[in-house]
Amino acid sequence: MASIARCLRAARPSAFAAVRSSVSRTVAARPFSVTASNEIRKYTKEHEWIDLAADKKTGVIGISEYAAKALGDLVYVELPEEGRTVNKGDAIGAVESVKSAADINAPVSCKITQINLVLEEKPGNLNQVPEDDSHGGGWIAKVQVDEQGLQDFEALMDSEQYNEFTATEEH
Amino acid sequence: MATPAIRNAWRTRSIFPTRHARPITTDSLSRKFQIYTSQSANPYLNLSIEHHLLEKSDPDSTILFLYTNEPCVVIGRNQNPWTEVNLPQLAKTRIRHQKLKHHLVRRRSGGGAVVHDSGNANWSVIFPKDAFDRDGHALMVVEALKNMGIKGVKVNKRHDIVQDVQEAEGSEPTPATNKISGSAYKLTGKRALHHGTLLLNSDLKDISGLLRSPAAPYIAAQGVESVRSPVCNVGVEDNADFYNAVIDQFKAMYPEGQPVEVIEVKQREALEHNNIWKGLQELLSPKWLWESTPKFRLSSHPTPEDPRPRPNPPTDFELSLTARHAEILDVQIYTSDLRPPHQLASLNFFLKQKIHELPRYCELRYWDVYLDFRVDNGKALALRNETVQQMCKWLMADDMLATGPLRGITQSLKTTLKELRQIRQGGKNLHPCEKSFGVMPWTHKKKEDEYDW
């Protein structure tokens, strides 16, 4: 399994590039006075990711491709409660696969503003595109981030550090 | 109480020559290897103790926890009680003609529904997530069973523990197996939990009936569906023998941790832990039990999304109901009895109501329902009162949403919490059955034919 995960990681940048380019295309179509929302993605040691928008107030969270792969076929995604304010590390939901319920923890302190209801119908999306934050993707929730959340965000790993981290975690 | 000896018989039967009845402490939780057993037979409390161990133990520690529950049906975290459990049967079955009924419990781990009684031993291992492996500790239990002289036991592809079907002498061995223990897992940030329930000498008669819901053919549910397997008992009379065998095998698996003392957790002391009490209150809340139910749709007739044939569909109307987290989002009906006929309409009365908070059918005031019955354009429709009655009766009947039994089950959650609160606040450390009968109902096992069922 470790080797599969490694292959996937190698393949990922291109997948990312596709998503990014589509984003920049839509951005280019907007009037020039609007700031391009180049979000930054960071990861936790518990394998969650968060995209922070350029305005540093909103973000999108999900679980990493590495974690989705390790969990196996997901049969149900228990989504967070909309409107709930949570601290970093709080269990906000869970995913179930092969008889295991795995907690999803809040990567930073935040308020849940929107949840990806499509995942309730199609938990498989989380296996296929766990790190996609578009409609039909495997993102879990959209959040509002405050001052404390920003501080939490700074302490997380960027994708390079995260790749190193998961490489050392494999046995 | 005149019967302390009988009362304690079940608990003390040769369990643990080296046992230490003492509380879970910060010190015990910080040790590298820990073994606990529970004196309580309350399923909610035992799951809460387990959750406490999972949350509060040292992240590097490995823990074995063993317990036996009083009769209950335990469903997986993301399951639907209306499709998995025969709720009317659960609400009315009295165990061995005593006051005690089955509890309904939603556990925190994944997986399917199981029935517990005093003939089931629960084994649970908590360990660092880095070492997570779905079979490791099931194999530990298999080894323990082998050491007890039980033959043909192995772990299958579904991570269940199974036993080969015993063949008559001389015949060819078959690949058929019976399940003796399931597996379910829970993963948190740093920790993993693997638990299962082993059929030692369980009363298998009730099991399949309790896990067959009359509403299942009508409901298309998201979430997790149980997989049925043939089951059997391994035929160990005394749960304590199994406990000891598993403890020995756990020690053999982790020899570096020796010596490990076996800590026996007392009900009262467990209840005094604030974190355990918090977990217990959660498990005993209707919010957890009912409102964690994934979205489902109940339709009286086959639909494009759910084309299964229905065993006994109503003839005068078609009805479908959608609910998410036990809250009714939509009830649509279609009947020729409408004026004008053959229109799709909504029964607004049920909207936004929680299923488990609906009245019993007999308490329903038809007039409320009748007034709230509209087509989607808001125009009121005429409908015969009998048709409204029929629809409500069908929907709320024991075979469907079972609103009557639901109320009973919700009430028993409250009663259980109240009783445990009394114990926590210093009441006698007695089970309610012991209070009423002086003896735990299953300590005194009669022969089958002594019952008049």
TrEMBL record, chain A:
Binds 1 lipoyl cofactor covalently. It comes from the Eukaryota. The keyword Cell inner membrane does not apply. The H protein shuttles the methylamine group of glycine from the P protein to the T protein. The glycine cleavage system is composed of four proteins: P, T, L and H. HAMAP family: GcvH. This is Glycine cleavage system H protein. It comes from Triangularia verruculosa.
UniProtKB/TrEMBL annotation, chain B:
This is Putative lipoate-protein ligase A. Residues 297-316 are annotated as: Disordered. It comes from the Eukaryota. Gene3D superfamilies: Bira Bifunctional Protein, Domain 2. Keywords: Ligase. GO terms for biological process: protein lipoylation. The keyword Ligase applies. It holds the Pfam family LplA-B_cat. InterPro entries: aa-tRNA-synth_II/BPL/LPL, BPL_LPL_catalytic, LipoylTrfase_LipoateP_Ligase. One of its GO terms (molecular function) is lipoyltransferase activity. Belongs to the LplA family. It comes from Triangularia verruculosa. Residues 58-247 form the BPL/LPL catalytic domain. Catalyzes both the ATP-dependent activation of exogenously supplied lipoate to lipoyl-AMP and the transfer of the activated lipoyl onto the lipoyl domains of lipoate-dependent enzymes. Pathway: Protein modification; protein lipoylation via exogenous pathway; protein N(6)-(lipoyl)lysine from lipoate: step 2/2. One of its GO terms (cellular component) is mitochondrion.
